[in-house]
Amino acid sequence: MRQIEYNNPAKVYVYVNVDFAEDGRMIPRFIVWEDGRRFEVDEVLDVCRAASRRAGGVGERYLCKIAGKEVPLYFESPKWFMERK
After folding, report:
1. CA distance 24 to 1
2. Are the C-beta atoms of 39 and 52 separated by less than 8 Å?
3. Residue 82's pLDDT band (cuts 50, 70, 90)
4. What percentage of residues in the chain have a pLDDT greater than 70?
5. d(Cα 31, Cα 41) in Å, to the nearest integer?
6. For residue 82, with 0-12 CB atoms within 10 Å meaning exposed, 13-18 middle and 19 or more buried, which class applies?
7. What is the Cα–Cα distance from 44 to 29, expressed in whole angstroms?
8. CB–CB of 84/10 below 8 Å?
9. Contact predicate 60/75, CB 8 Å
10. pLDDT tens, residue by residue, 30-67
11. Residue 80: its pLDDT value, please?
């Protein structure tokens, strides 16, 4: 049985500002990193159910374009997280 790691240094919970489409889809607009830096989400490229191999956890993976880079953002209800490099 896999042990759950509660203090995972690779997982960073982030604040995400989201808009909701009429059909209920969430559209992330910006994230706030743990040190307070704010990053605009330029575009959502893909949304699918996926696991984070680096940080652990399963949820909806939003593949976002932020500052010209493709970055995975995960919604693991009720929280959002990202992978620390």
Report:
1. 36
2. no
3. very high
4. 92
5. 7
6. buried
7. 9
8. yes
9. yes
10. 999 999 999 999 999 999 999 998 898 889 999 999 99
11. 97
* Side chain identity, residue 7: N
Cα-atom radius of gyration of the chain, to the nearest Å? Answer: 13
Q: Which structure tokens are listed for 5? A: 């790691």
For tokens 């909701």, the residue is 20
- pLDDT band at residue 9 using 50, 70 and 90 as cut-offs: confident
Per-residue model confidence (pLDDT) at position 6? 57
For the chain, how many residues are written? 85
pTM of the predicted model over 0.85: yes
Q: Can you read off the two tokens belonging to residue 11?
A: 């997982």
User: CA dist 85 to 1, 12, 65, Å?
Assistant: 27, 10, 16
The answer to whether 18 and 26 have CB atoms below 8 angstroms apart is yes
* Both tokens assigned to 83: 């992978």
